[in-house]
Write a structure and sequence with these properties.
CATH architecture: Orthogonal Bundle
CATH class: Mainly Alpha
Radius of gyration: 15 Å
CATH topology: Recoverin, domain 1
Oligomer: single chain
Largest sheet: 2 strands, antiparallel
Number of helices: 9
Distance between the termini: 42 Å
Strand order of the largest sheet: 1-2
Number of strands: 2
Helix content: 55-70%
Strand content: under 5%
Number of domains: 1
CATH superfamily: EF-hand
Structural class: mainly alpha
């Protein structure tokens, strides 16, 4: 019983971190992939999901405080998020475990959120076996990080972060 409660507390405490991770490695739309953001010039979109909250989420993940997200920082968040989502601690995520976590602002409810989560699940379950291992999760996250790095300098800036979530 205590183990179950401790696990639930860990999952609740990590919800904000998971939301930040999900946004950092979230699905990148075709517009964002081409660097064609909306509202603030090329690659700096300000659509749904982008704004002051995106900057705050990036700051949380930016563990060295240099103003950009590195691959190592993103990988650290991926590991933490995976562990928080793995409710039974077996080292694998089921679709139920993955889908039960609320991603992003608004608690991850509604058809759009479910569609995005489903797409992230499909990307992460690389071998199609119905479970996602830590390796699959990190590989999928690294691919999303690379897609968000529009100028290909190995870092994700606030502008790139916003643009990758401007859909």
């Amino acid at each position: 019983m205590k183990t179950c409660l401790a696990r639930r507390r860990t999952r609740l405490a990590a919800t904000a971190a998971i939301a930040a991770l999900a946004l950092a490695i979230g699905a990148v739309g075709a517009t964002a992939q081409q660097g064609q953001g909306r509202g603030m010039g090329a690659g700096m979109g300000g659509g749904m999901g982008a704004g002051p909250g995106a900057y705050q989420r990036l700051q949380q993940m930016d563990t060295n405080g240099d103003g950009v997200l590195s691959p190592d920082e993103a990988a650290g968040w991926q590991e933490m998020a995976f562990s928080a989502m793995d409710g039974d601690g077996d080292g694998k995520l089921t679709k139920t475990e993955f889908m039960s976590v609320s991603f992003g602002p608004g608690g991850g409810k509604g058809m759009r959120a479910a569609s995005r989560k489903g797409a992230r699940w499909a990307d992460a379950d690389m071998n199609g076996d119905g479970v996602v291992t830590m390796e699959e999760f990190k590989t999928s996250g690294a691919a999303r990080f690379t897609a968000a790095d529009f100028n290909k300098d190995g870092k994700v800036t606030v502008q790139e972060f916003w643009a990758s979530h401007a859909q």
